[in-house]
């Protein structure tokens, strides 16, 4: 008999995750972002062997608990209550947002999703436009490559000297983050942020043509109460534009980890 997986969350890619693993697992999708008494009772009665928690932190009303049947839990962004529950019950955990293969594949979808987002929002071509990308991790690298191939002028801005000169070796212009506003702040330039922390002052953001923030909530703005008109928090682009492809990536990460656990037995 197949193992049971309970998939929790409202992200559209989870529907395709369910479809993709259904040949190997009995599945049940719970389209909610709130762990409450009703969800607890429903999940517990299903008696899943595996629980897949949503990408964004689940909101809890009351204590978060996992059924006795649960042997493995897949965690997106964790919370204190989730960590307490998995440690208490000694459950095998897998933080799928930290899976290296998934991170790079998802970065490709994010880069392509941004291009779709830019076209739909700006109604302009990318060719010959100037883009500053703050941060040069996986998303920053894939995004720089995609924009460069479409004929954009790409400037990479980071604090890390290693990343700065790595970007230069690939032919991008560079600017240190500390000097960014002195050197590159122009009303014709688009900024794309990939740094997952609050570092951008609102008064600096308004001097760019537009700021696209791809980092997770709450984004890069220091003052989130007074959002500039040229700022947009543009998260979850893979789920927005490519839910099927993104769901299949999640399924690949799940099945790969379950296969690894079986090999360890």
Automatic annotation (TrEMBL):
InterPro entries (alphabetical): D-isomer_DH_NAD-bd, NAD(P)-bd_dom_sf
Domain annotation D-isomer specific 2-hydroxyacid dehydrogenase NAD-binding: ranges: 124-183
Q: Where is the signal peptide?
A: none
SUPFAM superfamilies in UniProt: NAD(P)-binding Rossmann-fold domains (SSF51735)
Pfam assignment, any one:
2-Hacid_dh_C
Looking at the UniProt entry, the stretches that span the membrane are: none
Domain of life of the source: Bacteria
The entry's protein name is Dipicolinate synthase subunit A
